[in-house]
Amino acid sequence: MAVTQFAGSILSADLLNLQADVADALKAGIDIIHFDVMDYHFVPNLTFGPGLLKQMRKAFPEAVLDVHLMVTPVSENIIRDYAAAGASWISFHPEACTHIDRTLGLIKDLGCRAGLVLNPGTAPQMLRYLWDKLDFVLVMTVNPGFGGQKLIPSALQKVSDVRRMAAEANVKPLIEVDGGVDPKTVGACAQAGANVFVVGSAFFGQQDRAQALAYLRQGLQA
Ligand code: DX5
Ligand code: ZN
User: Fold this and answer.
1) Non-local CB neighbours of 81 within 8 Å, separated by 6+ positions
2) CATH class of 5-219
3) What is the pLDDT of residues 36-51, one digit of tens each?
4) pTM above the 0.70 mark?
5) Residue 62 · residue 39 · CB < 8 Å
6) Distance 142 CA to ligand 1 centre (A)
7) Staple 205 to which of 97, 104, 106, 201, CB 3.0 to 4.6 Å?
8) Helices and strands, counts by H and E, the chain
9) If DSSP codes are grouped into helix, strand and coil, which group holds residue 17?
10) What residues have their beta carbon closer than 5 A to ion ligand 2?
11) Domain residue ranges in the chain
12) CB neighbour burial string for 167-202, b if at least 16 within 10 angstroms, e if fewer
């Protein structure tokens, strides 16, 4: 079983002081910086582009930058732009992409870790045909678009299903959960089989990030 990792979502950071906030998060011990890209089409919100990612990479050369694309369509150009800007991980939603297998291959060819994101209403069956190109699976535990929502319990069933499917296929992708993860819900996510936890409001939304991370880690034990 892979080590547990926390990914702080900058959606809940202080955007006017982003560099200081990311520095603070890394100092507090966050493992990954989660970078939500929204285009106002795939989800009803608009966020960050490759220009910002490039600056972030420059400021934090060692950071693991996890780019979650909530855009449609997912084109080759978009993947190339974020890889060139310094993404470490890139994931996208299958509904937004015509050639899923090819796109995962492209992400890997560009030297990034590749992931597929499953919305709450999206079935995981297609993963069975894609394991060879999947470094991680991101299970949405809310409908994407906004921070601060409540975790949808049926998504935990999907996390278990993905965990079981991976075991049956004898592969060990990371399983990341995103949305409504806090000290109260993180334990159930881990029990279901997740090992990477995206935390927006429960981490960047808190004044004391080291304390927030300590509460999340306590929640894992509960
Ligand atoms: C939602 C985003 C999440 C969001 C999570 O569409 O993908 O990454 O920032 O925020 P919280 O942790 O507050 O639910
Ligand atoms: Zn996200």
Assistant:
1) 50
2) alpha beta
3) 999 999 999 999 999 9
4) yes
5) no
6) 8
7) 201
8) 7, 8
9) helix
10) 36, 68, 178
11) 5-219
12) eeeeeebbbbbbbbbbbebbebbbebbbbbbbbbbb
